[in-house]
Design goal:
MetI-like fold
C-alpha cells in the first residue's frame, strides 16, 4: 500500500501536475469552455473573466486551445513512446540473446540511423509522406526506438552472462522465457528511468515538428503549433505564445520528477528491486 506521507514533496508535485495534464487531456471536450477552432472574440484579447488566458491570433479562446492541445500532445507522445520502447527494447534484447549476425546487422543499422540528425531525418520523411497522426506517431516512434535499442542491448548483454540466465539456458528455456522472465525484470529500473526521458523528448520533438509546420496540422491544436501561431504577438508585447511554451516545460518537469521517484522506489542501494 502506497503511503502518501512517504512520497517526497518534489515527486508529489510532479504527480499532481501530471495528473492535472492527463485529466485535461482525457476530459477536454467537457472541460474546455469553447470549441477547439471556435472563434469567440477579437485577435489577441487580454486575460479577462470571459477568456481566462485571453485569445489567440485568430480570436479563439486560448484556454480551450490549451486543453485540446494537451489532449493531442499527450496522446501522440504516449503512443510514440510506447512504440519506441516496444520496438527498441524487443530488438535490443533479441540482439543481446541471439548475438551473431543478427546483433551485428541490427547494431550497424541503428548506428546508421543515429548518425543522421533526428530532426532533419524526420523533416525529410514527413515532407514526403502524408501529414497524418499515424504517420507522425510512426516516424517519431521508429526514430526514437534507436536510443532505446542501444540502452536495452547494453543492459541485456550484461544480464545475459549472469548465472541465473545460464541456468535457464541449461534447463532448456526458450528465448522468450529468457527475455521476459530473466532479463526484463532485472532491466526494469534503468528502463523506467529512460521511459520518462523518452516521453519528455517525444513531447519536445513533437513541439519542434509542429513549430516547423510538419507536426500536427491546423485546425487541430497542439502546444508546439500554438507557439508558432502566436509567436508574432511577442513583438507587440503579447505573451500568448509563452503560455503553451510554459505548459511544455511544466509537463516535462513534472514527468521527470515522477520518473525519478519511481526509479528510486524500484532501485535499492544494493542494486536490487525494492
Amino acid at each position: 500500500m502506497l503511503d502518501i506521507k512517504r512520497i517526497p514533496i518534489p515527486a508529489l508535485i510532479g504527480i499532481v501536475l501530471t495528473a492535472l495534464f492527463v485529466i485535461a487531456a482525457v476530459f477536454a471536450p467537457w472541460i474546455a469552455p469553447y470549441g477547439n477552432a471556435q472563434i469567440v472574440g477579437d485577435v489577441w484579447q487580454p486575460m479577462s473573466s470571459q477568456f481566462w488566458l485571453g485569445t489567440d491570433n485568430l480570436g479563439r479562446d486560448l484556454l480551450s486551445r490549451m486543453i485540446y492541445g494537451a489532449r493531442t500532445t499527450i496522446f501522440i507522445a504516449v503512443l510514440a513512446t510506447a512504440l519506441s520502447f516496444t520496438l527498441g527494447s524487443t530488438l535490443g534484447f533479441c540482439a543481446a540473446v541471439l548475438g551473431g549476425w543478427f546483433d551485428t546487422l541490427m547494431s550497424r543499422f541503428v548506428d546508421l540511423l543515429m548518425a543522421i540528425p533526428t530532426l532533419i531525418f524526420a523533416l525529410v520523411v514527413l515532407s514526403v509522406l502524408p501529414s497524418t497522426l499515424v504517420t507522425l506517431i510512426l516516424v517519431m516512434g521508429i526514430l526514437d526506438s534507436t536510443r532505446v535499442y542501444r540502452l536495452s542491448r547494453a543492459i541485456a548483454v550484461d544480464i545475459e552472462v549472469m548465472d541465473y540466465v545460464e541456468a535457464a539456458k541449461l534447463r532448456g528455456e526458450g528465448m522468450g522465457w529468457i527475455i521476459f522472465r530473466e532479463i526484463l525484470p532485472n532491466a526494469l529500473s534503468p528502463l523506467i528511468s529512460e521511459l520518462g526521458l523518452r516521453f519528455i523528448y517525444a513531447i519536445l520533438f513533437l513541439s519542434a515538428l509542429s513549430f516547423l509546420g510538419l507536426g500536427v496540422q491546423p485546425p487541430d491544436a497542439d502546444w508546439g503549433g500554438m507557439v508558432k501561431e502566436n509567436k508574432d504577438g511577442i513583438v507587440f508585447g503579447i505573451g500568448a505564445a509563452l503560455i503553451p511554451a510554459a505548459a511544455i516545460a511544466a509537463l516535462a518537469i513534472s514527468v521527470n520528477l515522477v520518473a525519478d521517484w519511481v526509479l528510486n522506489r524500484t532501485t535499492s542501494l544494493k542494486g536490487g528491486r525494492g
